[in-house]
Write a structure and sequence with these properties.
- The protein is an all-alpha fold and about 140 residues long.
- It has one domain.
- It is about 70% helix and about 0% strand.
Amino acid sequence: MATVPDRVPPGPVHPLLAFLVAAALTLFAGGLLADLAYSSTYEIQWNNFAEWLIAGAMVFAGLALLWTLVALLRARNRRGRSFFVFLLLLAIFILGLLNNFLHARDAWGSMPGGLVLSAIVTLLAILTTWFAFSGLRGKVGR
């Protein structure tokens, strides 16, 4: 007698979503490194680098957020991994936008808040990447 598994194993993450999430993580991590460099050298150009890296990461995070929103609207089951990744991307987008606004101020005025927000957003991006690529329930981006 054959047994039927209770869960269907999740499919692979869509390659475009994988690219968008990984690109956002990389650029947010670059922004954090630029903030760390600015906090140790006080060279204003590092703050400018961080601002541009965070702005680029926001483009990819916004596209990934849009992708997961469309995937959630198309899915029959709106719970599980897809919804959690969507919530994480929404938090990343909101905090990243605040971080970009904070970096748009004077370089002296962006510290230490910019560094703290960059660290938080980078940790959230790591967590989002982990869950987007993990084998939890459901499919993300399919």
